[in-house]
Amino acid sequence: MEEHGGNPLAAARRLGRPPEEFLDFSASINPLGLPRAAREALRGSRAAAERYPDPQYRELTAALAAYLGVDPECLVVANGASGALWNLLLARRPEAVRIFRPAFSEYARGARAAGAKIREADLGDSFTPPATGQPGELVFWNNPHNPSGAVVEAARLEPWAEAVLARGAIPVLDEAFVDFLPDPRRWSLRCWVARHPGPVILGSLTKYFALAGLRLGYLLAAPEVAGALREAAEPWRVNAAAAAAGAAALGDAAFVAASRRLLPRWREELRAKLQALPGVEVYPSQVNFLLLRLPRPGISEALARRGILVRDCANFPPLSPGHVRVAVRRPGENRRLVRALGEVLR
After folding, report:
1. Which of 6, 106, 323, 338 could form a disulfide with 273 if both were Cys (CB 3.0 to 4.6 A apart)?
2. pLDDT tens readout for residues 169-227
3. Containing domain of residue 76, as a range?
C-alpha cells in the first residue's frame, strides 16, 4: 500500500490505465491550483536553473516571514513539511518521540531513522492532545489534525504546549494545513513558539499553494533554536524554481482571498452530499479534506477501478480499514466522487 496520497502513476501501473484518467482525491492540495504569481515566477526562473540557489534563501524567507507575521530569524526553509520534519529529527536526534494516533506516518518513520524510541497513544474520537511527555521527548501534535480535519484553537492549545514544556518535553506542532482555515492566526501557535525556546512548528506551502511537485516547507522556532537548526540543515535544500515560485505565491493576495471565499463552500457542499449516502459517516472538518467511515472495507479499490483515487487510511492506526480521506476539489469533480461512491455502495 502507498504510504502517502497523490500517486496516480502507481495506480496507473497497477490498474493498467493512463495516469491522466484518474481523478486524485487522495492528495489534499488546493483545488484552485498553482497561484498566477507562482506560474509567472516559474516562467521567469529558467535562467536560475543554471546557478546555485541563494544558500540563505533571503527572498523566500523574507516573503514567508511577512506572510506569517514573524521575524525572519525564526524561519528555516525546507524541502516540504516532510523535509522540515526530517531535518528536525536528524538535527536533534531525540532519545524518544511521543505520537498520538491516528497520525501522519512520517513522524514514526523519521523517528526510526533518527534512532529514537517511539511512544504512542491512541486519541479516540476526541482528536484533542493529552498533556503528557517525558524529559527530552519530542511530542508531536498536528493542528489541523490529519486525517480527521479537527482543529484546536490557539487559546486552548497554548496551555497544552506549556504543560508539555513543564514536563521537560518539547512540543512539535505540525501546522501543514493551517492556511486552509479562515483566520490562521486564531489557530496557529506561531507567535507563541517564536517567544519560547524549544518548541518547533512544521509548516507547508505545498498544500495551500499547490506546490506539491516543487516541495516547499519550513521550520518555525525561537531565533536561537531556528539558528541552530539552520546550521544543521543540508545546504541548497530548496531548489531555485521552488524558491522563486514560493516567494511569489506568498504575495498573491488574490489567490488567498479566492481560496478563503470558495474552499469552505465547496467543502460543505461535498460534506452534505457524502453524508447523504447510505452508510457513510463524515467527520467534522474545517480544512480541505474529509475523513469518512464507510460501511465496509475495499471501497477505495472499487473507486480506483472507476478512476477515482482516495486516501485509504489503513496506515493511520488505529483507524479501521473502512476509513478513507478525501480531498475537497472543484464542484464538478466533487460531484463525480459522490456519484462514483454512490454506485459502489449500491
Report:
1. 338
2. 999 999 999 999 988 989 999 999 999 999 999 999 999 999 999 999 999 999 999 99
3. 46-251
Q: Are residues 163 and 284 in the same domain?
A: no
Question: Rounded to whole angstroms, what are the CA distances from 129 to 143, 167, 173, 240?
Answer: 10, 15, 11, 38
Tell me: pLDDT of 126 over 80: no
- Residue at a domain's end among 251, 281, 308: 251
Compute the distance between CA of residue 217 and CA of residue 206 in angstroms, rounded to an integer. Answer: 7
Q: Which three cell numbers stand for residue 302?
A: 472499487
Strands 75-78 vs 217-220: parallel, antiparallel or unpaired: antiparallel
**pLDDT at residue 69, rounded to an integer:** 96
Sign of the four-CA dihedral 45, 48, 53, 59: negative
Mean pLDDT of 112-140: 91
Cis peptide before 102 (omega within 30 of 0): yes
Return the bridge partners of 200, or none.
172
Q: Decide the pairing of beta strands 308-309 and 311-312.
A: unpaired
pLDDT of res. 66: 97
Last residue of a domain, one of 216, 251, 286: 251
Q: Which amino acid is at 291?
A: L
Q: Grid coordinates 524541502 are at which residue?
A: 79
Q: What is the full DSSP assignment across 263-293?
A: HHHHHHHHHHHHHTSTT-EE---SSSEEEEE
Residue 96 parent element (H or E): strand 96-101
Name the pLDDT band for 158 (thresholds 50, 70, 90): very high
Can the peptide bond before residue 144 be classed as cis, meaning omega within 30 degrees of 0?
yes
Asked whether the whole model's pTM tops 0.90, one would answer yes
Q: Which of 161, 128, 175, 139 is nearest to 284 (CA)?
A: 128
Cell numbers describing residue 183:
483566520
Q: Are residues 218 and 294 in the same domain?
A: no
- Domains identified in the chain, total number: 2
